[in-house]
């Protein structure tokens, strides 16, 4: 492939034939379940499955399969395994590390037609559903019943809960509800040889040996296809408040976070960071008016969720009075209604889209100890100023460096917004960013995973021993290596 000059197609994998396609069409019983680029030119229809959200990675799949049941997934994988056909599991294709699209001609197994809720218990809050249910659909279903899906992120309208599991997505409220590793109670998954792993437990507690489902959580589709999930969901809070605050320094952001934990404690449900550059970029890309009049170097979005509106407002007001009085926060606004809540959140959630709006984006999703977290953004800007790649005019590939993220989880999103993808920019960033993070004993991926983007760099966050153990697991579950090949493992 020209797209990936440094990766070679693995010759162990068979190329698809018309006969293979015939088998799949018969199995799935209909044209709508198959996008067939073997027997006809289907490039336009295949594009959405081959190209990722950032338009940075592009595969050459000529076949997309959309199974409707776990049994169909099992038969597909068994056939692929028996015939050495490589497979790329795919959910909503919103992944940000190139893991969700093929590299060469892997068959895309897309879960979008497995979209049924299986059960919900309104006493325990345990929700069981097919992997292909869209996150927002799941959350709306739960909202009608007074519950909330314990994960929320900007891509909720297209990502699937199976994809969320496969990436161990973190999102906007991890500080309140915890990770998928903690909330998932059970999984149903299919191994490459067709074995159905039937671990769809609805038990909160279950200490009966190895917790094997954890391997699929954050496994990024490298050992099997997740087909069903069981998850514990908390009550939806009737009282939600959102404040958007301006601050003069990163020191003050840290003080505000400390105060928020202290004073808002059990009702704090999000503490997000945005720098001025990220808000300017959002403003420029969308034309939206920013919430505050003057510009501050930093902004925080604070959300509270609780059961008593008066109680929560009282707490939030006391917090705001204190942080403004102590000059930790210099300016701020509290949403007065649902529309305002949405528009404040849009300033945070809209950064992803804005970051690539002017051409493209290099995204780094990092865990860094809080005191050091923002230094990376500052040093990254200096780095680009020195090497002459960033500037105001079209001559420069880099438009801006923006920093934002899940402050409450020590998770920084460093985004380098570019006018065009450019090897020189990539070279300036990698491994520079990873070295920086390793020096702080951080993680090169807090939440997006490794995929293809960080395949070469896992060693910055994992020891030789850990990588070896991962490879052993991969070999055990997927001895022929057909699951999401060429990616991190
Ligand atoms: P895909 O993108 O289709 O796939 C992602 C990976 O999972 C691939 O490796 C794929 O092979 C594998 N996979 C998908 N489905 C399955 C399955 N059923 N079985 C096995 N493997 C599977 N991520 C965060 O963590 N936090 C955020 O705050 C966040 N915000 C985002 C905001 C925007 C605007 C966008 C575009 C992305 C954001 N992401 C975030 C990244 C992305 O949305 C998540 O990684 C999401 O969980 C991916 O789900 P998906 O269904 O789109 O999976
Ligand atoms: C987010 O939190 O907005 C996403 O994880 C970050 C991104 O788009 O890089
Ligand atoms: Zn994020």
TrEMBL record:
It holds the Pfam family FAD-oxidase_C. One of its GO terms (molecular function) is metal ion binding. Keywords: FAD, Flavoprotein, Metal-binding, Mitochondrion, Oxidoreductase, Transit peptide, Zinc. Its main location: mitochondrion. Its cofactor is FAD. Residues 57-236 form the FAD-binding PCMH-type domain. It catalyses: (R)-lactate + 2 Fe(III)-[cytochrome c] = 2 Fe(II)-[cytochrome c] + pyruvate + 2 H(+); (R)-malate + A = oxaloacetate + AH2. It comes from the Eukaryota. SUPFAM superfamilies: FAD-binding/transporter-associated domain-like, FAD-linked oxidases, C-terminal domain. Its EC number is 1.1.99.39. It is found in: Mitochondrion. Belongs to the FAD-binding oxidoreductase/transferase type 4 family. PANTHER family: D-2-HYDROXYGLUTARATE DEHYDROGENASE, MITOCHONDRIAL. Catalyzes the oxidation of D-2-hydroxyglutarate (D-2-HG) to alpha-ketoglutarate. Also catalyzes the oxidation of other D-2-hydroxyacids, such as D-malate (D-MAL) and D-lactate (D-LAC). Exhibits high activities towards D-2-HG and D-MAL but a very weak activity towards D-LAC. This is D-2-hydroxyglutarate dehydrogenase, mitochondrial. It comes from Polychaeton citri CBS 116435. The lineage of its organism: Eukaryota, Fungi, Dikarya, Ascomycota, Pezizomycotina.
């Amino acid at each position: 492939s020209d797209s990936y000059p440094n990766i070679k197609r693995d010759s162990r994998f068979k190329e698809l034939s018309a006969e293979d396609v015939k088998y799949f069409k018969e199995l799935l019983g209909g044209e709508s379940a198959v996008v067939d680029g073997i027997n006809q030119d289907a490039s336009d229809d295949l594009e959405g499955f081959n190209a990722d959200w950032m338009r940075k990675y592009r595969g050459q799949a000529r076949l997309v399969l959309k199974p409707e049941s776990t049994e169909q997934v099992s038969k597909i994988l068994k056939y692929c395994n028996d015939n050495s056909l490589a497979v790329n599991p795919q959910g909503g294709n919103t992944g940000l590390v190139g893991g969700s699209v093929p590299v060469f001609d892997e068959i895309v197994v897309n879960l979008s037609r497995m979209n049924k809720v299986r059960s919900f218990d309104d006493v325990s809050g345990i929700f069981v559903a097919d992997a292909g249910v869209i996150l927002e659909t799941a959350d709306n279903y739960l909202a009608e019943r007074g519950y909330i899906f314990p994960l929320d992120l900007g891509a909720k309208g297209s990502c699937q809960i199976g994809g969320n599991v496969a990436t161990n997505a973190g999102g906007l409220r991890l500080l309140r509800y915890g990770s998928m590793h903690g909330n998932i109670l059970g999984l149903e998954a299919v191994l490459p040889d067709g074995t159905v792993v039937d671990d769809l437990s609805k038990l909160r507690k279950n200490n009966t040996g190895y917790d094997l489902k954890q391997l699929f959580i954050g496994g990024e589709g490298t050992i099997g296809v997740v087909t069903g999930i069981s998850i514990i969901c908390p009550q939806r809070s009737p009282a939600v408040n959102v404040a958007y605050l301006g601050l003069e320094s990163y020191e003050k952001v840290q003080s505000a976070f400390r105060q928020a934990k202290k004073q808002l404690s059990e009702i704090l449900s999000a503490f997000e960071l945005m720098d001025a550059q990220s808000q300017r970029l959002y403003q420029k890309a969308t034309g939206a008016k920013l919430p505050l009049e003057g510009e501050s170097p930093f902004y925080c979005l604070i959300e509270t969720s609780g059961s008593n509106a008066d109680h929560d407002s009282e707490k939030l007001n006391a917090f705001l009075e204190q942080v403004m009085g102590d000059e930790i926060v210099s300016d701020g606004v509290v949403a007065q209604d649902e529309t305002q809540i949405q528009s404040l959140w849009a300033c945070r959630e809209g950064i992803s889209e804005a970051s690539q709006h002017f051409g493209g984006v290099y995204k780094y999703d990092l865990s860094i100890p809080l005191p050091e977290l923002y230094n990376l953004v500052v040093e990254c800007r200096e780095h680009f100023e020195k090497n002459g790649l960033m500037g105001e005019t079209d001559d420069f590939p880099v438009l801006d460096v923006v920093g934002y993220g899940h402050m409450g989880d020590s998770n920084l999103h460093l985004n380098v917004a570019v006018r065009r993808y450019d090897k020189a920019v990539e070279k300036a960033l990698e491994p520079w960013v990873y070295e920086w993070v390793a020096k702080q004993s951080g993680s090169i991926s807090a939440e997006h995973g490794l995929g293809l983007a960080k395949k070469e760099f896992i060693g910055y966050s994992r020891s030789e021993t850990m990588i070896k153990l991962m490879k052993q697991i991969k070999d055990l579950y997927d001895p022929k290596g057909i699951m999401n090949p060429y990616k991190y493992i």
